[in-house]
Amino acid sequence: MKKRPILVMVAFVCMLIFPLAACSNTSTTIQVAEVTRSIFYAPQYVALEKGFFADEGLDVELKTTWGGDKTMTTLISGGADVALVGSETSIYVYSQGATDPVINFAQLTQTDGTFLIARERKPNFKWEDLKGSTFLGQRKGGMPQMSGEYVLKQKGVDPHNDLDLIQSIEFANIPNAFASGTGDYVQLFEPTASIFEKEGKGHIIASFGEESGHLPYTSFMAKESYLEENKEDMKKFTRALYKAQTWVQEHSAKEIAEVIHPYFEDTELELLETVVERYKSQGSFATDPILDEEEWNNLKNVMDAAGELPKDVNHNTLVNTEIATKVIQE
């Protein structure tokens, strides 16, 4: 009879423990808005597909918002917790007097991701060959166009005086415009650049990524208030990303292509491998999530050269390296 109270107590303790254990297995949902769907963002898809976010207890819901303006609007309005977009957008928002500025906390890519495409093969291409040509560029104020202009100027080509520069075509329509006969040269992302080469519509003759140096081309960012209120979750998010970045560095382009293929089902695996290898070989994928001051200053130089830097913003104003640094030091 004396054992009965003990059994009751054990049952009571179990009732308390099991719900707590169940709660500990729940995931935190983080909504991420990516500016476009691109092989350029391979480490992000590796983190998702390899379960690195899930291992941290995070349920990352990814949506593509197609364009810097739309992505930033989605983030600011609360339609996403985190945005993957060019770091220049955080400067644009800050310069407009944002009371809750957008903070860069983890870098994904560290070079330009575009390539120069010509209609014909040019084995002896020199940048001055562009002078007098019609150049199909990117959107004014966007990172691809600013980085492209920066490279051209470094090579002695004035994009607004030496070229017939076309910037009036929507981003999604640029490849079709070139394929239809508009322009002598075009600036394109992958996999479109490689597809054009494979189909004989154009030929890759130079990489803007190799020429522009390191800069925070795309980074994960969130509103300052969100980072402050979700410190532990953001640390988990960054840890998962760092795992993916390390995995990408340690594995072949073929292995990476196989992992991220579900996100690019319409792209042949062989082509996917080619694109990954091209980005990997030129160091486009950031090897860690830290956005350092040198890269930030290079970004401002690129923006300033294009006449698009609204104001000088210090690195520590819009960049949080504390989270990434702690993750790497673990």
Automatic annotation (TrEMBL):
GO cellular component: periplasmic space
Signal peptide stretch: 1-22
Keyword entries, A-Z: Signal
UniProt cross-references to Gene3D superfamilies, sorted A to Z: Periplasmic binding protein-like II
Localization per record: Periplasm
Pfam family, one: NMT1_2
Family, per entry: Belongs to the bacterial solute-binding protein SsuA/TauA family.
Protein name: SsuA/THI5-like domain-containing protein
Organism: Pontibacillus litoralis JSM 072002
